[in-house]
Fold this protein.
Amino acid sequence: MDKNTNVLLQAQDISLRFGGVHALSNVSYDIKKGEIFSIIGPNGAGKTSMLNCISGRYTPTSGEILLNGKSLKGYSVNDRAGLGIGRTFQNLALFGHMSVLDNIMVGRHHQLKNNFMNGMFYWVGGAQKEEIIERRKVEDIIDFLEIQHVRNKPAGELSYGLRKRVELARAVAQSPQIILLDEPMAGMNLEEKEDMARYIIDLNQELGMTIVMIEHDMGVVIDISDRVMVLDFGRQIALGLPEEVMQNEHVKKAYLGEEDDYIRELEEDDAEVMS
Amino acid sequence: MAGISSPRPCGDYRTSYKSDMTIFPSRNSLYAAIGGLFLLLAFPMIGNDYHLSLLIQIGYYSIAAIGLNILVGFTGQISLGHGAFFGFGAIFSAYLNNATGIPVFFTIPLAGFATAAVGLIFGIPAARIKGLYLAIATLASQFILEDFYARANWFSGGSSGSLAEIVNFLGIELDTDQKYFYLVLFWLVVSLIAAANLIRTRDGRALVAVRDHYLSAEIMGINLTKYRILSFGISSAFAGIGGALYGHYLGFVSVEGFTLGLSISFLAMIIIGGLGSVMGSVLGAIFITLLPEFTEIMADIVLPESIADGKAYVKEMSVGAAIVLFLIFEPEGLAHRWKLIKAYWKLYPFSY
Ligand SMILES: Nc1ncnc2c1ncn2[C@@H]1O[C@H](COP(=O)(O)OP(=O)(O)OP(=O)(O)O)[C@@H](O)[C@H]1O
Ligand SMILES: [Mg+2]
């Protein structure tokens, strides 16, 4: 095992199968502390499935994921928030009827101690004190992501771009060591994309968060990623610096949808193993 | 259930997070609530017995409705067994007092705890099932509990029912409606404050998060199973206290009072009042309690003497019709209408 202390997350030989569908096949990679690591690939390549394996929604059919050298096996989805894994979703997943403020406060759930008992008696038992301290932290995040003007609005009534930003705020409120962003810029206009890219860089540089990002916009990926992993049909076909990866033959073919001998060979190998 | 942003009138600035985190959205609404409370405190001295008994009914039904709204409105789970939990509180409080001599003043909150425990047990299916399936599971809990009350003579007095002692508070027997009213009012205010506080703190937010998007709630570190079951416990605690107040008010608890019909009435209260609104629970309890009284009065005025026999019939039907019309024209409940009216007046004359 890699003893490098710089490694935050290790995925070892991850495979994930849904019946006959190989969503992921033997994918391995390391994510270093403080890097922006992008996962790209065509639709259905298994990118979201990969994040789901990290956040615990899916359990890999085989292989293991380690955070800080410790296996995540056996940790439930909600336990993983406490371990320092935060995330946003590909499809909007805010609490639509709650205010933006409350949405972000939910992000702090695992860091709060008050419960229904002392919560009901707000003024005695410390709930008020804690809520105020936490509110201050949440306001900092709101300032950071510049969503002050909507803080009291129900999240479900915001524009698409703002909702994406609130989702990011909620994930930041989790104070994660590693934050998983599933297409944070999908469906945004150019200006919104630039803003979002800026926030992601700031999160990374100012707050020191390690970021795993799935993104289809190659321009953004090349601009802000430290390293890029390319998935195609559940296989890792490239991993490296952005420029390297873009030069990669298989990647070009995967994106142009051409027949790729290398991939076909791999698939044939696979078929042999299966039979 | 959609929220309405509630702008504050000018001059009502917030200078600290503390003052922005109050239960009441504006200073005026706080004053209005305090004013309303004083009116209620004075009511036994000015109102007549009939009105007082209606207010007491509204009081204990409101407490139970607040509980059900935490389960249904806030957590998004359905329960058809709330009436049985209400009954458990009533029977338990009477039983505990009769069996151990613990003063009724204390058995009422204890009934809240005991009913919470029962609610937690019957809430266990919520860990696995949702929606219609959960509705059927809670329907089963309604029947199981009803059956238990009917059979467990030692506990409920069986078919003959059991006596529920008069409450004694520091040597004062609360033996008239005038005095009992204050006890109910006390518990109603406690319940309102507890629910409002719950909703603005960690666990209350978690319940709403589970309702709105359980997958991302889980990612935020919320244990879905825990909160789905906990919601039943909290909700039942309110039902238990409401039920105990009901029992000691009547002075007698009988198994027949806690049927599926009562469970449905509680659901009607929160749907009409407004799902996910603490105040709405009270408005709904007022509506459901007063509607039959109102239709009775109307029937007396409108219907000729000659069809007096059909009156009861007309009354029942108009209660049903009022509820249906209400759901069609005010689907978000009384609380929503109330907010709109408030928003209108707050910014008057610049309402647009
Ligand atoms: N829960 C599931 N059950 C069955 N099949 C699934 C499930 N989740 C994912 N898959 C399959 O796994 C494959 C990879 O899906 P995934 O969502 O990970 O792709 P993706 O790379 O995120 O695609 P996109 O760019 O469209 O978001 C797809 O073939 C998909 O149908
Ligand atoms: Mg995806």
